Amino acid sequence: MLCGLWRSRHRRPEEPPVPAQVAAPVALPSPPAPQDGGTKRPGLRALKKMGLTEDEDVRAMLQGSTLCKIRSRTWHKERFYRLQEDGLSVWFQRRIRRAPSQHIFYVQHIEAVREGHQSEGLRRFGGAFAPARCLTIAFKGRRKNLDLAAPTAEEAQRWVRGLAKLRARLDAMNQRERLDHWIHSYLHRADSNQDSKMSFKEIKSLLLMVNVDMNDMYAYRLFKECDRSNNERLEGPEIEEFLRRLLKRPELEEIFHRYSGEDRVLSAPELLEFLEDQGEDGATLARAQQLIHTYELNETAKQHELMTLDGFMMYLLSPEGAALDPAHTGVFQDMNQPLAHYFISSSHNTYLTDSQIGGPSSTEAYVRAFAQGCRCVELDCWEGPGGEPVIYHGHTLTSKILFRDVVQAVRDHAFTLSPYPVILSLENHCGLEQQATMARHLRSILGDMLVTQVLDSQNPEELPSPEQLKGRVLVKGKKLPAARSDEGRILSDREEEEEEEDDEEEAGAAEQRRRAKQISPELSALAVYCGATRLRTLRPAPPPPPPGQVSSLSERKAKKLIREAGRKRDVGHLGQEGRGDLQAPGGWGMLKMVWKGDGEGSGAVKSSGGPQRGAQSAHPVGLRGPRV
């Protein structure tokens, strides 16, 4: 948030270009060669602040370990890993063509640390190493996992425990500690030769890292004003002064001065006046005093119940000063409504980690989807060798992964972030035998997590709620028709492709069978609350389907239905301005919409107005009923 506000304030387009002597002030020396496997370190200040300098696991990480990095069955390379004394980063060294290469990764970028063979890479390639010696470091974003094997199980445990302690300490920091940590982490990254001094070139790197788009002339002017020693390096108090000027917020200073008056400090009554003017609920003098004791940095001012500008800024830039209610950072809505009353975050082509044409498929893609909050993931299932179904993007060059491995990833990671139900959307291209294998894997691997029958206490006329389905996995797929029911019909292969894949180019699509697909009774029985059906028209309104049916639409088909319904001008069944509305007729159950992607990737999304009209699942999806 701060970085975005700095950007416009520090632009100085009217100033002249930077002279050559400013643009390249002093050539930086090359980083010193590491001594005994390390780099020059600035000190233990950060670890002391964390209270971890005496921790045995952290001390072992500071000494470093030679760990084996595993990439394939034959690619096992030793690397020296060591926690740097900032407590924020791990340094490691490798050799490329006999030349040493040094790298760093940061603790705050770690998503999870897993013990044993809990990654796809270690399950496939780590057989030569005992699970007790192995660990996986999973990173946030698109960075690949780091699969490692330690010389001993105890050494592996030290890294697992040590990284967990560092991550927990970072998560537990208060606002002041987070700001201090944030500043020092970027200073450390920008200080390329680790001499605890900042050249102008390193200052420019720092500004780039924190997304401050500052004119070079203006930046150099600030640099020179803070360079009291006049040696083209900032250190100690000079760096602090530069950062103070960089963090200056005139708009906040104006607000502070408006309420503080000539003495330039806020008393508790003056802070209370500010809170009341902002319309804060429950603003009292005691509340103002509590804020002073929480956010004021100056101990003398705090003792006299006064707030300085620094304390005021700390408060406004804290979660308590944010526009978002901190109570709303978690689930605060009523989760006892039927499942169809909610939008559900979903993923399309979940298994892909790159291009839809020739990219790799991976179980790690499911782990990352769950880490990002997805509750509906897609499994594109095809016939595989040895009687084992595989998942990949059909008729393309994408790699294949085993269906059972994906189900294991669902079991292990579906509920690490959220307890609410997960929907497995099956795109089934398998024959009867491998469908039965899929059903067997779902039952044996997921066990009690899998919903296999209607809940005992559930009203048969309604879907269960997310609260009732906590920790449960639902299967979305085709169902065999009931003996006495014509309210839905089985989708043929061709129809399903039209509904869910008609915006994607598929080589060999003409070879798809047009006849209705045979459905395995074992797999059909698992689609308890999410049986696939088809929505043909919005006008006239069809009879409401029974609970537990999911209609599927492509973006193109959704637009067509909306346009057709709008043209019929069916009063009472139209959305605003006479447009067709997917949620107005009522009783659709659940609706899964697949948004059109742009290009090869699975993440490019264009909005077509579907969610505003009640559409529900795939890229930015939701599952929602008409009454909400």
TrEMBL record:
Family matches, as Gene3D superfamilies: EF-hand (1.10.238.10), Phosphatidylinositol (PI) phosphodiesterase (3.20.20.190), Pleckstrin-homology domain (PH domain)/Phosphotyrosine-binding domain (PTB) (2.30.29.30)
A GO biological-process term: intracellular signal transduction
Keywords associated with the record: Calcium, Cytoplasm, Hydrolase, Lipid degradation, Lipid metabolism, Metal-binding, Phosphoprotein, Repeat, Transducer
CDD domains, sorted: EFh_PI-PLCdelta3, PH_PLC_delta
Compositional bias of kind Basic and acidic residues: 484-493, 561-580
Entries under InterPro entries matching the protein: EF-hand-dom_pair (IPR011992), PH-like_dom_sf (IPR011993), PH_domain (IPR001849), PI-PLC_fam (IPR001192), PLC-delta3_EF-hand (IPR039504), PLC-like_Pdiesterase_TIM-brl (IPR017946), PLipase_C_PInositol-sp_X_dom (IPR000909)
Major subcellular site: other
Reaction(s) the record says it catalyses: a 1,2-diacyl-sn-glycero-3-phospho-(1D-myo-inositol-4,5-bisphosphate) + H2O = 1D-myo-inositol 1,4,5-trisphosphate + a 1,2-diacyl-sn-glycerol + H(+)
PROSITE patterns: PH_DOMAIN, PIPLC_X_DOMAIN
Record has Calcium as a keyword: yes
Cofactor or coenzyme needed: Ca(2+)
Molecular function via GO: metal ion binding; phosphatidylinositol-4,5-bisphosphate phospholipase C activity
Segments of this protein annotated with the region Disordered: 1-43, 484-518, 536-628
EC number: 3.1.4.11
Gene Ontology cellular-component annotations: cleavage furrow; cytoplasm
Localization: Cleavage furrow; Cytoplasm
Pfam families attached to this UniProt entry: EF-hand_10, PI-PLC-X
Domain PH: 59-168
Biased composition (Acidic residues): 494-508
Protein name: Phosphoinositide phospholipase C
